[in-house]
Structure formats: C-alpha cells, structure tokens
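task queued by scheduler; priority normal; single chain, no ligands, no partner chains; default sampling; output format set to structure tokens
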Amino acid sequence: MKKVLILGAYGATAQIVIERLLNETDDQLVLYLRNSSRLSRYANNDRITIIDGDVQDVAVLKAAMQKDIDIVYSNVGGINLDRSAKPILDAMQQTGQKRLIFYSALGALHEVPGAFGRWNEETIQAALPGLRKSDRLIKAATAINTTQLRPAWLTNYDEVDYEITAADEPFKGTEVSRKSVADVIIKIINDPTLYQNDSIGINKPNTDGDKPAWL
C-alpha cells in the first residue's frame, strides 16, 4: 500500500487516476485542489484525505507532503506551468520527498517534428515557455526523481491505446486519450522504478498528421 499525493486533483486525467486507484489498489490518497468541495463525493471515503489548497501556498503544500507520502503526482496545469512547478519542487526538497510524476505536454523539449511540430508551436505558443521552464527546473532539482509526462493533444475517447517516446526521440502522433495517460500514471504509481529521471512522450499510434484529426 502506498500513500499518493495528487495535486490538481480535480483535473480530468487526475479523476480517472483516482477512480482506478480506488478500484484497483489499496492505496491511500491525498487529494489537493482549490475549491475542494468539487470532490465532496469522496468526503466520507476512509482511504481519502482532501486538502483545500493552492500549489502556490508552499506552507499548505509542505504540510500535505508531510503526511507520509510515498509519491507525488502533479496534475496541475495552466499557461505558466513553471509557476506551479517551482513551489512543488521547492516543497518536495524541503520535506524530503523524492518521487514525482509531473504532467506536462508535447513541445516541452522542442521534440515535435515536421508540419505538426510547426502547427503545435503556433497553436500553444503561449504555454510553451512555461513548459520549457518547468523542464529546466525539473532537471535542476537533482534530488527529486521525476517522470515528466509529455502527452499529445488530449481526447476523451474511451480507449487505452498508446506508445511511448523517449526524451531523445522525435515525438510521434498527434493525439492520445486521457485514459491512456492515466494508464501510464497508474503503472508508475504501482512501480515507481519505471521511467526514473525521465521525460516521456505519450501518443496514440498511427495518428500522425499535420494536426489532430478531430480539429
């Protein structure tokens, strides 16, 4: 049994992860989010602790990390992702936390080739500086064993179908389901030796193109 701290627990992928952990493991979960009433359905679940907090509030974040946490999973998003990455990494270092799963996105490593890469750069240009600064912060935090996730454009399709690309490989495909990304997260939580100190791309096979097919 592990104790998992989920930051940004109201996120769509995070909610899939929560349900799978409850159904498939005996793990204890600490759910950290703003406006915690949004997850009030878990209020009476004896495997869940809910904390109302913003990751910018390092004092509250540190208190959450001092609850015998085994692994931290950040599902925090936003255009300026680095502004969340820094307090998360700082709080982990100050509390001795060592294992982090960090949800980022494609393009964080300048790794998306071709016409799709150019389209992606133009489409999410406002978010890319934050993704890339987050990557630099993660690499500098050498005391923390981080797996950075770089999923393709996300869908809500009811499927688990994906492949992984390494940090030094060109990104493949254009899309991937949230259920697929959640499956990767579940596997890492179950076996934290997977993808240690790594940044992995996640995409659905055979979805190459100039942009996601549904756009």
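post-processing summary
- The domain at 3-203 is CATH 3.40.50.720 (Rossmann fold).
- The beta strands are 3-7, 28-33, 48-52, 71-74, 99-103, 145-151, 153-155, 163-165, 175-177, 198-203.
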